[in-house]
Design brief:
This protein is 35% helix and 16% strand. By secondary structure, the protein is of the alpha/beta class. It has a six-stranded parallel sheet with strand order 2-1-3-4-6-5, sandwiched between helices. Strands 15-14-16-17-19-18 form a six-stranded parallel sheet, sandwiched between helices. It is globular and about 75 Å long. Residues 140-144, 148-153 and 187-192 have low confidence and may be disordered.
């Protein structure tokens, strides 16, 4: 065998041994040795192969697969192809997802010479992501260094970049007959990190305390809140928005006298959604306890008084503090539902609520950044404990790129009776390439709900949407696009349905057709700022 074939097969064999079960491939000439190795491994049932023509979509597909519990590697050719993996690798780095990128490169003798499709790929993803530059003569020690001594590196939670120097010839002389064997596949229903095993710390009762559960916080946040008798302020993608202590309208209540009475906050996961939460964590009169922050940056963006790995508390007997939050939550929740019921037409909150209700036990929901995740935050019910609903959102960097591909990857990696995605129209357009699938590609059953308000309404709720900037708002921030989503979906033969009212939306969500389909929910954008102001007033009374 030629050196490039040996290198490609050896790297893939080591990835399989480490737990990789999915290979996402973007085609190219320089990465042909990797492509042939992946094809043979897939034909032998060792991995599942996914081919995409767009490297950025390929990277996010691999990210979605890995986050849903099916470890994936993304492979591409040299040059700008590698740069297009950067957004997915950055998201993985900041979210603590162990995504692996394997990139083809020219041999070292061609570097710095102006050779075609050759750039400096070593460290191209920046200092936050480890790069291992592998040549055929250095394959064994360098690859072992990449994976370290752990038998399951995909529990570590950090992405890595393997850059392979591949020289001619780039095609094998025969099939890969002696295929590798990986560890026994675990039955996993979603993303799970290993237990860090840190010492358990006991937190005393005392101050009026709330538990904040950010992205990927997991069940420990709920368990602590219920044991201690504290309100649980849980984001939709926290994995904690279940049980009796979750407060639906916490974002609104934090700006009331009830929020002002908070004396201590316990933080799990990565809170990113809410300015009221950010203001709470920035208060100098509030004591902050913080669990581990996953990803490449361990420091929190707020002052922390006490850090912990695992936390426990005695059972709380006094429910006065919790009862105040529950009563306020019931009142504001009722008023919010009543307000939305009187709004003409379909609102983005209606769409988020309908999607949340349509998610059955064991179901999967992938949510886009910007308004959809925040709308869902106010509309998602308290799901029952143990129902194994999974809500995923790319909150490492909270970008709108690659969400369609991430959703497809998550649905492929975590098959369920019902998989949904909730995204805005700009997010959908940003990754419409995610719908470009070849006829032989694995396809999940996934309903993508697109909230279409013809632009970026998130900015209407921020400073940029204030009246003094109305004359330039649309050009700079609202960005109406006028795209016919039905025609766009038709180009990729993706079934599409447009809805404008609550009954037809609920009907569409209860009767999926199978495969990937798009439900376009048309809402207004011109009244978004005023609607949000009326919603905030429900809690403050202003």
């Amino acid at each position: 065998m030629n050196d490039s074939t040996v290198l490609a097969r050896d790297v893939l064999a080591r990835l399989v041994a480490a737990g990789v079960r999915e290979v996402v491939l973007a085609p190219g000439s320089r990465n042909a040795p990797l492509a042939f190795a992946a094809y043979d491994a897939a034909a032998g049932g060792v991995v599942r192969l996914h081919t995409r023509i767009d490297e950025r979509s390929a990277g996010f597909l691999a990210l979605g697969l890995t986050r849903s519990g099916s470890p994936a590697v993304v492979m591409c050719t040299s040059g700008t192809a590698v740069a297009n993996l950067h957004p997915a690798m950055l998201e993985a780095a900041h979210a603590g997802v162990p995504l692996v990128a394997v990139t083809a490169d020219r041999p070292a003798r061609l570097r710095g010479t102006g050779a075609n499709q050759t750039t400096d790929q070593v460290g191209l993803f920046g200092p936050l992501i480890r790069t291992h530059d592998l040549a055929p003569e250095g394959i064994v020690p360098d690859t072992m260094a990449a994976f370290g001594t752990e038998t399951r590196p995909f529990r570590r939670g950090l992405p890595i970049h393997l850059n392979l120097q591949l020289d001619d010839p780039l095609v094998p002389e025969g099939r890969w007959e002696e295929l590798p064997e990986g560890p026994e596949r675990e039955v996993r229903r979603g993303w799970r990190r290993s237990d860090d095993g840190g010492a358990e710390v006991a937190i005393p009762h005392g101050p009026r305390t709330v538990v904040v559960a950010g992205d990927d916080a997991g069940p420990p946040a709920r368990v602590l809140a219920e044991r201690a008798g504290w309100p649980l302020l849980a984001e939709p993608s926290s994995g904690s928005r279940t049980g009796t202590h979750a407060i639906r309208t916490y974002r609104l209540l934090l700006d009331t006298a009830l929020g002002a009475d908070i004396e201590r906050v316990v933080v799990f996961g990565h809170p990113t959604l809410s300015r009221p939460v950010s203001r709470l964590l920035g208060r100098t009169d509030v004591e902050v306890w913080s669990g581990p922050s996953y990803g490449v940056w361990a420091r929190r963006p707020f002052a922390v008084d006490r850090e912990f790995e695992r936390l426990d508390a005695d059972e709380g007997a006094d429910t006065t503090w919790l009862d105040r939050w529950r009563e306020a939550d019931r009142r504001v929740g009722r008023d919010l539902d009543a307000l939305l019921s009187t709004e003409p037409g379909l609102t983005a909150y209606d769409v988020a609520g309908a999607v949340a209700r349509a998610l059955p036990p064991g179901g999967l929901l992938v949510v886009g950044a910007s308004n959809p995740i925040r709308d869902l935050d106010l509309m998602v019910p308290r799901y029952e404990v143990g129902a194994r609903r999974k809500v995923i959102s790319n909150r490492g960097l909270s970008g709108i790129d690659g969400v369609v591909s991430s959703a497809i990857g998550a649905a492929l990696g975590r098959p369920s009776d019902r998989s949904l995605a909730l995204v805005g129209d700009v997010t959908f357009l940003h990754d419409s390439n995610g719908l470009v699938l070849g006829p032989d590609e694995p396809r999940p059953d996934l309903t993508i709900v697109v909230v279409n308000d013809d632009g970026g309404s998130i900015f209407a709720t921020l400073e940029q949407g204030a009246e003094p900037y109305a004359d330039r708002y649309d050009r700079l921030f609202g960005t109406p696009h006028g795209v016919d989503l039905a025609a766009l979906c038709a180009a990729t033969r993706t079934p599409h349905l447009k809805v404008t009212g609550r009954p037809e939306l609920e009907q569409a969500l209860t009767t999926p057709n199978g495969g990937i389909e798009v439900v376009e929910a048309v809402v207004r954008r011109d009244d978004r700022r005023a609607l949000d102001a009326r919603i905030r007033a429900l809690a403050t009374g202003t």
